[in-house]
Write a structure and sequence with these properties.
Elements lengths: L1 E9 L5 E9 L9 E9 L5 H9 L3 H4 L6 H15 L14 H23 L1 H4 L14 H10 L2 H6 L3 H25 L5 H20 L4 H29 L5 H9 L1 H19 L2 H21 L15 H16 L3 H13 L2 H31 L1 H4 L2 H46 L3 H6 L1 H4 L6 H24 L3 H17 L1 H10 L6 H17 L2 H11 L4 H67 L1
Amino acid sequence: MFEKATTGRTTRGGRRRERSVVVVGGGGGGGGGALLESDKPVTPPVTPPVESRIRATMTREERGEEDDDDDDERNALLLHNNNNNNNSAEKRLPKWFSPMRLLHLFCLVAIALYLDRGVVSSAAVSGQPPGGSGGDENADDADGAASTSKGYGLQGDFDINYAEYGVLQSVFVIGLLVGAPVFSELSRSVNAFKLISLGLGACAIGDLGCALSPNFQFLLLMRVIVGVGEASFVALAAPFIDDHAPRGMKTRWLSYLYLCVPFGVALGIVYGGIVGTYFGWRFAFFGNALLLVPLFAFCATSDPIDLRKKTNTTNNNNAATNAEQQQVHQRQDKNIVEVFVYDSLKLLKIPTFLLTLSGFSWYSLVLGVFSAWGPKAGFALFEYELHTRSNADTALGILTVFCGVFGTLLGGIGVDYFAKKRKQHFQNQILERHGRGRRARVSSSSADSSADSSVADNLYFSAFCSFFAFIFVVISFSSKNFYSFLFFLAVGESFAFMLQAPINAVVLWSVPTDSRPLACALCTVAVHVFGDVPSPPLFGYLLVKTNENWRWVMKLFTLCFAVAGVVFFVAGMIASASDRNDIFDREVRNDIDISNNSEGDVNDEREENDDENDVLI
């Protein structure tokens, strides 16, 4: 009696529309049945892979879910990488991997590596040379005579003075500066995770060699090996975090990594003091080598992951491919030194990256002075309150470690929070511009691209922190009251450490994807060569020229914070102009899509009216 037939057509707007035709009384073979028609829009079904990719690009808060298990997280990340990387379909993540596990692994590695820095800086490990003074006015005469005649620790065993011990630290930095560019260039052709494992193995061998050193020259060689090994992690760890951190939390995850630096150094000082006092300085290095062995074994034997390579986002793929082929041929015609110089000069031509390195170097000038002269300055200004130099080391050391951990973590959380607010404001502007209907959904895709903090956000945030660090540190060294000095110094140092994660994020995001390891290596070279290495001797020279006017010289060097803030602000203006151009281009494309959809909607309504008139006729 009733038969149903379905016909369909595609509207100009690209949507499928079905027409259901019900035939009344037309069974058998005869015609003449009545037709009852109804038009209904049919939404094309979303295939499961697309749904998975959509969910993978959302944060847990947006999905309204609790923490998933590691398998779900790994699968979501794989789909997310497949959506963002043209070549990722051929890659598979290992079973051990999840983003959170990677973060935990790298935090452990960072603590173990910077534990070595603290061990070398420990007074119980370094000791004092024969005939030296203990430096503590309250030491007993008997102990002082014994230490003067014999010496103890590393300096006592090898009979080296303080200048030679300073060379030991400089040699480590040389290994770091040489190794970072080498590992960054190797990451283009060798798996980056395996390079990190190679560096960990070198650090373990270097620490073991330090523990077994027969003389000072062999110890210097082992310190160079430790510096080269650490360079692999310095150049390659941050790009891994940038690849796998959740959307909207990249800077926060970088802050988790960088807060392990002051924590590891502080833990190394404590560890070196305890082990060096009761077991000797050699056991301190031996214990650190044992700590690195399981980390090296895991990274060396587990299935590796690799860094995300450069993706082609140009519309003209053939032109981009030809340009890349020309660059490959140019690189093949050069040796490794020429390739490094060529790649470095190419990065230094990026204004935002160059200004970031400049500002970071000015910022590191102050940090170098604080680390080398801070406790001595505190004791010189407040000798009556601190009583001894060891008390100054303890008080200001604990203060610096607390401010480093707190400030670094707060900086990562803060810049992501401001980026989230900016994203919401941007989405509201889009909704006000296009309305809240069908058209706004198209335009809102441009807001999704700003889920993470931008380069301009991080640079403005870093400039803000630099200015406030300058103000509060100057106030602290102008204070005559000891507790006011500690309070304002704590606030100033917290602001100074707040820009650690944002500015390292800028180093990663202001360069092409496959150049991030080299960018981290150049950053390491710049902050040491132009920052914390030359500043301590320059401070000492000015201190002598000013008749040890500690307040004036400290405030003069603190002015570098303000200079860094100006440089970061200028770089932020350049990056912001680039961001506005990108947003304008996206909005122009969205406006074209919206106008096309609107015309399609009008034509659909006209076709629907024509169909209804046909039915009535």
